[in-house]
What does this fold into?
Amino acid sequence: MTAPVSPSLLRGKAALVEDYVNQLGKGQPGTFDALLDCQGQLRPGWQNLLGALEALGADGRFQQHEEIQRLLAENGVIFNMHDDSHGRAWRLDPLPWVIDQAQWQTLETGLTQRSRLLNALYQDIYGSRTLFDAGLLPTQAILASPHFLLPCHGSQPGDRPAISFHGVDVIQDAEGQWRVIADRLQAPSGTGFALENRILMARALPEMYRNAPLKRLAGFLDKYHRTLTALAYQHRDNPSVVLLTPGPGSPRYFEHAYLANYLNINLAEGQDMVVRDGKLWLRTLGGLQPVDVVLRHCDDAYCDPLELRGDSQLGVPGLLQAARTGGVAISNALGVGALELTELADYLPALCEHLLGETLLLPNANADTQPATAPVFDHQLQRLIPTTLNLRCFVSRTPASVGMPGQQHSDYHVMPGGLAWVGAPGTPSLSSPVVKDVWVTATTPQPHVSQLRQARGPVVATRDGTDLPSRVAESLFWLGRYGERLDARARLLREALMRLMEYDQDDIADQLLDELLLALEITTLESDAENAKPPLIGFAQKSTALLAQFGEQEPQALQPLFAQLLRNARSVRDHLGDDSWRVAHQLRQQMSSLSPTLAPSAARRACEGLSAQLAAFFGLCNETMPHHYGWRFMDIGRFLDRVLGLLSLLKLTLNSPHSPGLALWEVVLATTDNFTAYRRRYRSELHPEAILDLLLFDETNPRSVGYMLKRLERQMDKLPGSSSPYRNAERRLLIQANAALHLADIDRLNHLADTPGAQEALEQLLDDLIAPLSALSNAISHSHFSHVERPRQLVSMEPDE
It folds into this structure.
C-alpha cells in the first residue's frame, strides 16, 4: 500500500524518484506500488538500479534508449502484423520490473499449483469425466465451447503430462496480491521475447546488469529442453524435437525461430511433416526423418485438418491419431484450449480442493479488481510514469517428473522472470507500446549456464545436411533468386538514372535510356495492358516511370522484390547467422526509405547502397553458413537467376532497334560489374566480340555464362540423388546448356560485323542457352522440394443439427 507522501520523505531522494512520488500523491491513495512501499521508501532491489539510471543523466538515458531500440531492430525483434508488411517493433523499457524474493516465492508457489491443477483437470475432462457428474464444472459452457475438442478424448496417454508448458498472465491488485488474468495453454508465447529482452538488457546496460543480484533465465530453458526430450516415447537418448509454427505470416514468427535456434530444435511448418504408419515424419532432403516430440505453437483446432478443423493449412493430417497411439508426443496436449475458458474461474477454488486437496493460492481477477501501479521510464519526458503492468509467467514440467503419476509439488518449476508489458489488465501484449524485462532478486550469486548442454552419450558427427526440411531448401533457393533479381534490377536502375540525370530538358531523352527502360520492362506509365498509355516519349514521363520503380505499386519494382526476399529470409531465420540478419535489417531500413518522390540523384545512390548491402548479405552467408545442402540451394538460386538475367540483357542488346553503340555496351559491362576487367584487358577500345567473349566464354570471370554454368554444375553434382547412374531432368537440362555453349563456333562469333549469319548464330546460341536454363528451376523444384496438396476432410466432423 502506498500512503500519501509527506514532503519530509522527499528529502534525500533522487530527482526521478521525487517526481514519481509527486505523481503517486496525485493519484489514488492506498494503491500498491511496485517501486515504493507504504512509507514511501524504495522496495528491495530498486536502490542500485535507480541510482544507476539517475547517474546516466538525461543524455545518457536517451542514448541508452536509442541503443536498446537499435539492438531490438538489429536482431529482428518484430511482430509481423498481418496488415503491416514491414512488421512492427516494440519498445523495451530500460527500467526493468524488479520483484523481490518474498513476492516471487508467493507467486511461484501459486503458479506451480495452478499448473498441477489444470493438468489434473485435463486428465478428467478428456478421460473419466467424473467432474461433470459431480457438478464441479460448468458442463454446458465447456461442451458447447469450440475449444472443447471431442476427438481429443483419450488421446493423451496417462504416463505423459498434458501440460508440459504453461503461460499465465497475472497482475498485482491494489492490495499487492497476485491475481490471474488468463491461462495460456494452446500456444503459450513470450518465452523467446523474454529471453531476448534479457540478453539485450545485458548488452545495452552491462554494468547495471552485472551488478544486479538477479536470477538468470538460462537454467530454466535448459531444464525445459530436457523436459521436451523426456517426453519422447522412442529414441530417448537422442530424440528429434520439432517446433511447429504457423509460418512467417504469424505475428510471433520471430519468437518461433529464435526459440527453435536457442533450444537447438528443428523449426517446421505443418506441410513439412507427414504421418505414416501411426508415426510423425519430417520431410527432408535425405528422405523422411522420424519426429519424436512436437512443441506446437499452433492453436488446438489447427493442428490436424483430418480430425479437427478441416480448413486448416497449418497442421499435419493424422497428428491426433499419431499422438493417440503413442507415435509422437505433443507439448501441450491437443484440447487444452478448453482449460482457458473464462467460465472456469469461479470453479477453480472448489476444483483445487477436490483434485489436489489444497486451497487455491492464485485467484482470478474480476471486473472489480483494481490494479497496482509500477514505474515505466518515458524517454521523451525523461521521467518515471506510474502505470499498470501485465506479467506473463512461464511454468514448465520438471524433466524428472515426466512419466511419473500424480500431481506432486515438485512436478513444475517457474522461469525466474517473464514478459511484462504496459496496459490495463488483460491488454494483449501485441497491442502494448512498451515491454519490460522482469528481474527477480537473488540472495546468492547465480552460476553461469552455457547454451551448450552436457552430452549424455557419444555423438555421431554429421556434415551433409540431409536433415534439412525440403521447404527450407526451397526458401533458400528462392532467397538466392530474389536476391540476385533485386541486385540486377538495382544495377539497371542505377544506369538508367545516371543517363536520366544527363538530360535536363523536358522533351529530350536519348535512345540509350529507351533501351534501359525496355530492359526494365518499363514501356508505359500504366501496368494494366487494357489501360496502357502510348509509349513513353518525353523526359518527364520517363523520369516518372523510372522513379515509380522505387514505390510499391509496380510488381517488378524494388519494394515488391525485396518483400519476396524478406519473406523467404524470415522463413529460414534459424538458418541465417546473426551477422547476416543484421545486414538484412539494414537492407530493410534502407528499403523502407525508398519512395517515388526521391530525387534522381538520391535514387541512384540508393541503388548503389542496395547492391552493396546485398553483396554484404550473401557474402556473410557464404562465409558463415555450412556449405551443405541449404547453402548449395541458395547458391544455385543466385547463379541461375544471374545467368538468366545476363542472357536476357545480351539478347536485348543484340535485338536493339538501334545499332548497339558504345554507350549500350558500356551499360552491359557496368551492370555485370565487368567494366574494370574489360578495360584492364582491352584498354578503352570498344570490341563487341571481346565483350561477348568476356561475358559468355571466359570461365575465369565469375560474371560469365561459362563460369556460372560450371558453378551450377559443381553445386548440382553434390545434391541428394546426384550419385545415381541415371541423369535426372535438371542434370540433362544443364548438360544441354553446357553443350550449346561449348559447341558454339567461337571463330565465327568473333567476326560479328563482317561474317554473314554470325549475328543470327549468336542469337540462336542465346536462345539455346535460355531455353534449358529457364526450365531448370521447375526441374529442381520437382526433384527436391516438397509439394503438398491441401488436405481436406471427406466426411464432416460436425454433429447433425
